[in-house]
Design brief:
The chain is an alpha+beta fold and 396 residues long. It is built from 13 helices and 16 strands. The longest helix has 24 residues.
Length: 396
């Protein structure tokens, strides 16, 4: 009798396990007609599962199941694991939010869960239909394909140049959203709509880096805003030449109000290649990101020849940058003069500093047959290390 009882119990348990795993399909191939879901056979996410490697087997099982359910637009996912505490569930959701910019239709902040002796169940909230998500994904990939094609046509093969190109392209094509919606927090907002908040900028960059096969991480924490108040913020970390460094496109997408006729959009590189120590005074990183590699300084200015102890070492390069950004109305250039005395001379003596660079740029523009009457209209500091952005306008 005991043997029969045990057999019945085993059969019941087997049925529960079979039913649990049958709640989402084993095949994740997307069928546009049926709207089943997206394929997760991607090989373009080099750090996918990085945070998963820190999870125990039960937590990792839930991580995999949530991704499978989300890709198939299922609002419930269950796994036959129990004993998971609330922090483990939060870690799963946070890991997916950080590592999967391609799953943009789920509102991860509205995830509900329950734990019982039969397993763990999570309920997902989707704020768009499968067909809407499919359309957005198609449009995103079309835009990214075009960006990559343009990079290839320009002969960009070096990782540093590729990261610079993507940084500048996102900053040029996207503006910070005045009205915050679910979409502004996603790569769709930045790439398709051209309007996003910090995590939208960051997820767009993350997705393109994934497509390029460049190791990168999405960073979240809080930072001082323009009023000095701390608020949630997102940025990126990217690995260049084996070194992990911070990049903040949101803060590099600047608008200067130094022009008398209004505002000038400036694509800065002040937050390109910053170390954790350089950012420490103005922001903190949330604990989950502490698992990522330490971020060191890998400055844009050094690579572009726009930094140095003396002014003379950067004049030619700065003049060329000013000429390259000239649009017939405004122009700008960035420099990093590390020596305080030289920096004071640069900003206080117009003819010997800013004016000299502008004169050289005007000569370049004149040689190219372009308008060349630019004059300096202002500058502003971005760091205490001598990083300056100089704004110019065409006169006459």
């Amino acid at each position: 009798m005991k043997i029969i009882y045990r057999i019945i119990v085993l059969l019941i348990l087997a049925a529960i396990v079979w039913y649990t795993f049958s709640t989402y399909p084993a095949s994740l191939t997307y069928d546009i007609l049926s709207g089943v879901g997206f394929s997760d056979t991607t090989d373009i996410v080099p750090v996918e599962g990085y945070l998963r490697s820190f999870m125990d087997s039960d937590t990792a099982m839930l991580y995999d199941a949530v991704i499978a359910a989300a890709l198939n637009f299922k609002d419930t996912v269950s796994v036959p694991s129990y004993g998971l505490d609330e922090q483990q569930l939060i870690d799963v959701i946070d890991a997916i939010r950080l590592e999967r910019p391609d799953i943009f239709w789920v509102d991860w902040s509205c995830t509900a869960y329950s734990v019982s002796s039969q397993g763990t169940t999570l309920s997902l909230t989707e704020y768009m239909t499968a067909y809407e998500a499919t359309d957005y994904r198609t449009r995103v990939d079309s835009i990214v394909d075009k960006i990559i094609d343009e990079m290839q046509s320009e002969g960009i093969t070096d990782d540093f140049d590729a990261v610079c190109y993507v940084h500048d392209r996102i900053a040029a094509d996207c503006t910070y959203a005045d009205e915050v919606t679910d979409i502004t927090h996603t790569m769709v907002g930045a790439l398709v709509n051209g309007s996003a908040v910090c995590d939208g900028y960051s997820r767009a960059f993350q997705y393109i880096m994934n497509r390029l096969g460049i190791e990168n991480y999405l960073m979240i924490g809080n930072a001082d805003d323009t009023d000095g108040e701390r608020s949630d913020h997102a940025w990126n970390a990217v690995v260049l030449d084996g070194f992990c460094t911070n990049i903040d496109i949101t803060w590099d997408d600047r608008v200067s109000d130094t022009d008398s006729d209004g505002k000038i959009s400036v694509i800065s590189h002040s937050y390109f290649g910053r170390s954790d120590a350089e950012l420490a005074s103005g922001r903190t990183v949330f604990d989950i990101c502490e698992k990522y590699p330490r971020r060191v300084s890998y400055g844009w200015f050094a690579h572009k020849g726009l930094n140095g102890a003396s002014r003379e070492s950067i004049y030619t390069t700065a003049a060329q940058m000013l000429a390259d950004t000239a649009d017939g109305t405004n122009a700008y250039f960035e420099v990093q003069i590390t020596d305080p005395h030289e920096r004071e001379l640069f900003t206080s003596s117009y003819d010997a500093g800013i004016g000299d660079i502008i004169s050289r740029a005007n000569a370049i523009l004149a040689d190219d047959g372009k308008p060349s009457g630019y004059v300096g209209t202002g500058y502003f500091h971005t760091f205490d290390d001598g990083t300056l952005i100089v704004i110019c306008s065409l006169q006459g």
